[in-house]
Amino acid sequence: MNNEDILQRIQALVQEEHDLRDQPQGAAADAESQDHTARLKRVEEDLDQCWDLLRQRRAKADAGENPADADARPISQVEGYRQ
Q: Is residue 13 part of a domain?
């Protein structure tokens, strides 16, 4: 996966996140609401993971290393970063 592929994935996830956030939740059944919430959480996690991978690749390139050596970190690790 190269930087352009990652950026395209990020754009798709951002669009899905916006679509999920724009959906009204008041009339949804309880199971649907839980599915919606779980999907939104997963999209947010995937976005964080993609951004982390892109930052790793850019840092490796800036340091003269091979960006292809960057690997996606586990979501549990990415979500644990302090802002």
A: yes
